[in-house]
């Protein structure tokens, strides 16, 4: 399935939703992410599903040269675009491949940020466990989308493409998955501002 999804996202590399700078409404929604993450200067951040690097670029500024961003995506086209965008950011490591196959520093990550990518992970339980193991004892995991769960799942369901079965789990299932992975949910909200989950290592 990842090969089919990679082909799909390769075809979307130049699409406006993948390349255009965030607008004021989107930036306001990202403020919630950074408020929950806390100061990031000097910190290590992992970003699965980085796409063309729009958010990666913001993260790079926030962690600064003393920090580190490890970002990855299954799409070769999107990673190539991200590398071009972030060519001068030596503290950003961009990888092409699936999260499950990308080695992460054990208990060395301050923030794992899954922005608009969680539904596309084939093994969501495994991904949560992998990311949890990478977190420092006080590390946080954030899963966020600009739209609420019902909208995201409906759009994917009707897409007729490689992402038509990619869903965000309902709240009860997600809570169980987080607990099983060793996470304690701090906030889980799902409203007009979008879907937002913030958890700490239990």
Automatic annotation (TrEMBL):
Q: Which UniProt keywords apply?
A: Methyltransferase, Transferase
Q: Which residues form the Methyltransferase type domain?
A: 47-143
List the Pfam families hit by this protein, alphabetically.
Methyltransf_11
Which biological process terms from the Gene Ontology are attached to this UniProt entry?
Answer: methylation
| Source domain of life | Bacteria
Is Cytoplasm set as a keyword in this record?
A: no
Q: Which GO terms describe its molecular function?
A: S-adenosylmethionine-dependent methyltransferase activity
Keyword flag Methyltransferase: yes
Kindly provide the name given to this protein in its UniProt entry: S-adenosyl-l-methionine-dependent methyltransferase
């Amino acid at each position: 399935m990842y090969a089919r999804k990679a082909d799909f996202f390769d075809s979307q590399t130049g699409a406006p939703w993948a390349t255009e700078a965030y607008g004021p409404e989107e930036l306001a929604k990202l403020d919630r992410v950074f408020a929950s993450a806390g100061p990031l200067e000097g910190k290590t951040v992992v970003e699965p599903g980085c796409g063309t690097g729009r958010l990666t670029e913001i993260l790079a500024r926030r962690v600064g040269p003393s920090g580190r961003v490890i970002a990855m995506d299954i799409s070769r086209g999107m990673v190539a675009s991200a590398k071009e965008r972030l060519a001068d950011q030596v503290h950003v490591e961009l990888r092409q491949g699936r999260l499950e196959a990308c080695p992460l520093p054990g208990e060395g990550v301050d923030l794992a940020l899954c922005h608009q990518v969680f539904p596309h992970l084939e093994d969501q339980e495994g991904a949560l466990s992998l990311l949890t193991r990478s977190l420092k004892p006080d590390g946080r995991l954030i899963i966020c989308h600009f739209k609420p769960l019902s909208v995201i799942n409906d759009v994917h369901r009707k897409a007729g493409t490689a992402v038509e079965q990619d869903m965000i789990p309902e709240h009860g299932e997600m809570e169980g998955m987080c607990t099983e992975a060793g996470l304690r949910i701090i906030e889980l909200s799902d409203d007009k501002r979008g879907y937002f989950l913030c958890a700490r290592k239990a």
